[in-house]
Every structure is written in C-alpha cells, then in structure tokens.
TrEMBL record:
One of its GO terms (molecular function) is hydrolase activity, hydrolyzing O-glycosyl compounds. Residues 1-20 form the signal peptide. Keywords: Glycosidase, Hydrolase, Signal. This is Glycoside hydrolase family 43 protein. It comes from Karstenula rhodostoma CBS 690.94.
Length: 324
C-alpha cells in the first residue's frame, strides 16, 4: 500500500512535470532580429525585423510562437517609410495598442526615422499610420514609464556630433515627443568595438527600480552585447547624471554570438520577467537575417539587480514562463 501510494505520487509528479510547458531556442530561426514580445489577453505576440514589412505572430505558449498564427500588419511599396523596416515594438498607451518601428526610404540608411502606427484594444487588431516622431535619424525606439515623471521615448540617435548614442525625449502623447537629449554615449571598451554604438533600449522594472538595457558595439561583431542603465530613483530621467551604467550584462556564449537588441515580457501569471533577444551562430558576428530569436527568464541577484545569465546552446530544453 505504501509502495503503491509512493508510486502513484511519483507518477502524478511526473505527469505534472510533463504537462508544464517547455521550450527550446531558437523561437525564430531566420529573420529573428530585434525581437519584441508582449503577453496580453491570453496570447504572446512576437514581432521581429523582416526588413520589408511588419508581421505579428501570436500563440498561447512561448514554444508555440515557432508555428504561431502570423499576419502582416504594415507594408509600403515606396516612400519615406517603405524600406529597412526594423525594430517593431508594441506598447499600450492612452487606451490603445501602438506599434513603434524604424523605417526609411529603403535606398539610404540616413533616412531612417522612428514612426508609430495606432491599433485597437488588442495587438491583433488592425493598425493604421499615426505619426513620424523624429525629423532626424532615429532607430530602435522604446517607451520607458516613470510614475512621477510620465512616459519617455528612448531611441538611438546622433546628437550634437555624438557617436550613435541612446537619446531620450519626454512624450507629449503616444504620437508626439519633445526634444531629444543624450542619455548614454558609447565610451567604454565593450561599447566601442569596431564602432562606438548604443542602440536597442528596453525598459525593465523590478523591486521599485527602473532599468534600461541596451545593445553596445557594432552589430557585425561578436562583441555586440547588452549594457544596463540604472535610474537613481529621483533625478530627472532625461539627464544622464540620473543614471549609472554597468556591463556587459549579456554576451556571446555557447555558440551564440552577439546577443542583443532585447525586449522584456511578463509570464502569463505576472510573476516572472523574461528576456527576448537575438544572436547568431556566425562566429564572426552578424547583423542580418541570420540572427535568431532566443528567450530566457530573468533572474535576480541577492542585491536586487537583474541577472541575465548566459545564452545556452541552441536546443537546450527549458521550462516555459510561469502560468503557461
Ligand atoms: C540622482 O541624480 C540627480 C542628478 O540628475 C541628482 O541631483 C540626485 O541627487 C541623484 N539622487 C540620488 C538619490 O542619487
């Protein structure tokens, strides 16, 4: 009897384990660059850079995104936002979903600007063009929210002759921003490999702290990696003096080169924060459609700071986000 009970609980335990969702990386093997995921209303929504249009994939599990329902929500055959379509991000603001992205005329990378589409009550609704947010070179825009200061637009730009840096502007609304200021310039050795670059910002909120991760160094190198800015909690967020920098906090490992351009999303039950980023198997580094999409849970150090871990060998099996 005792043996039987033990056996029963063992079998039950195993079946519970087996029913917990698992996943393997990569989620998207090709054109997995600049990934962004949100969890909302029972679905994960994944977007990546395809260069030619904006596509949304949805699924109820992270592993399901590999074969999720996919649709194109934006494309243009010609014009000022028809080419080099990069870095799409979904954000809920002013009671609607907005889709921020980078695009230019497709001929000259100097024409890259930040744009936004307005959607509806779910990310699966139709989007229509709302605004171009900058009249100067700007890529990789994201939103950073402060309870006492409002929403800020953080993007990568050149200001006053700076190298490619993180820039920050107060948002007047979802479709209008104020003047940009320099937030973080690439100055440290790990931010300046081949070319000084700070790009791909993403906001992270945990334990009452506000962080911004970003990607540093030239994307065609294996030194492309994540850096971390930590807000001091009281200073004007648009002043670089209110932030401290550390890094790299995620770098090449286990055959994954140049991990970067990440985003964060929450688990279905809201208890975990997950990191989605791209990397390449090209040991020389890559900045093209060969980059694949990876996800990993964010862990927390005893002093409260985020621990992004190490990109594991492709194909390693992990437990999916809590609540799947
Ligand atoms: C935060 O930074 C600002 C400068 O932007 C400074 O005036 C303020 O004293 C700092 N606060 C803390 C708690 O370090």
């Amino acid at each position: 009897m005792h043996f039987f009970k033990t056996l029963t609980s063992l079998v039950l335990g195993l079946s519970t384990l087996a029913s917990a969702a698992t996943y393997t990386n990569p989620l998207k093997a090709k054109d997995g660059s600049d990934p962004h995921i949100v969890w909302s209303g029972g679905y994960y929504y994944l977007m990546t850079t395809t260069w030619t249009n904006l596509q949304i994939t949805r699924a109820t599990t992270v592993n399901g995104l590999k074969t999720g329902q996919t649709k194109t929500v934006y494309s243009q055959s010609s014009g000022a936002r028809s080419g080099n379509i990069w870095a799409p991000e979904l954000h809920w603001l002013d009671n609607a979903w907005y889709l921020y992205f980078t695009a230019g005329d497709g001929k000259d990378l100097g024409t890259q600007r930040s744009h936004v589409l307005k959607g509806g009550a779910t990310p699966w609704d139709t989007f229509s063009f709302a605004a171009t947010l900058t009249n100067f070179w700007s890529i990789d825009a994201t939103i950073v929210r402060f309870s006492s200061w409002g929403n800020y637009f953080v993007h990568s730009c050149h200001l006053n002759g700076s190298p490619q840096s993180l820039c920050i502007a107060k948002m007047n609304s979802a479709t209008s921003i104020g003047a940009s200021k320099l937030l973080s310039q690439p100055t440290l050795s790990w931010e300046t490999v081949d070319t000084p670059v700070n790009e791909g910002p993403a906001a992270l909120y945990h334990g009452g702290k506000t962080y911004i991760t970003y990607s540093a160094s030239f994307c065609w190198t294996t030194s492309y990696s994540l850096g971390l800015l930590t807000w001091n909690g009281s200073g004007d967020p648009s002043l670089s003096s209110s932030w401290s920098k550390s890094g790299p906090v995620l770098k090449s490992a286990n055959g994954n080169y140049g991990p970067g351009h990440n985003g964060f999303f929450t688990s279905p039950d809201g208890t975990e924060i997950w990191n989605v980023y791209h990397a390449t198997a090209n040991s020389a580094g890559a900045c093209d459609g060969n980059r694949y999409t990876m996800v990993n849970k964010v862990n927390w150090n005893s002093n409260g700071t985020p621990n992004f871990g190490t990109p594991a060998k492709l194909g390693t099996s992990f437990t999916g986000p809590s609540g799947e």
